[in-house]
Amino acid sequence: MPFPWSVVAKVVPWAEVAKRAPQAMRQAKQAYAAHRAGGALVRQLDHLVLTTAHKDACLAFYTGVLGMTLHTFGDGRLALHFGQQKINLHIKGQEFEPKATHPVPGALDLCFLSVVPLADVVQRLQQAGVPILEGPVPRTGAVGPMRSVYVRDPDGNLIEISEPTN
């Protein structure tokens, strides 16, 4: 039996696909050229998984203090969205498969880029009663120089919040 292309033609938004195709092809060609030249096989981080032992406190910190948005997906899984990234949450002892070999709370060291001036970040952290461990201090990030402050989330993960200084 031949493939039912007529059905596909009715459900696929071909006009939208056609608009995005040149950009997607250009990105794919650039990625493949970088790979052939010995470069990276990946282009950005989509999500990471954070294991927490303190679900409610974790959600309060990431949504209430950092302003991320909580989403539920799949079979009741939780994710914290910000920008074009997300943090999937695993509750200690209730992790989803596949998972890290040794998923433990408090093992992460993360750096987030702020959408507001660092002075506003410091003020919000202070208002929320979150102790600042260090900063503002100069640092070097993936895209260049920045100023950072450091705090801990409820599980003890080190959280760096930065603003570019260029």
Report the average pLDDT across residues: 88
Number of helices: 4
The helix/strand order is HHEHEEEEHEEE
Query: Which stretches are poorly predicted, pLDDT < 50 over at least 5 residues?
Result: none
Q: What's the story with the biggest beta sheet?
A: 4 strands, mixed
Q: For the largest beta sheet, what order do the strands appear in spatially?
A: 1-4-3-2
Counting helices, strands and paired strands, the structural category is: alpha/beta
Brief overview, please?
The chain has 166 residues and is α/β, with parallel strands linked by helices. It has four helices and eight strands; from the N terminus they run ααβαββββαβββ. A hairpin with a 5-residue loop joins β7 (144-152) and β8 (158-164).
Structural description of this entry:
The chain has 166 residues and is α/β, with parallel strands linked by helices. It contains four helices and eight strands. It is globular, with a radius of gyration of 20 Å. The model has no long low-confidence stretch (mean pLDDT 88).
Please give a handful of descriptors for the protein shown:
single chain; 166 residues; alpha/beta; four-stranded mixed sheet; 31% helix; 32% strand; globular
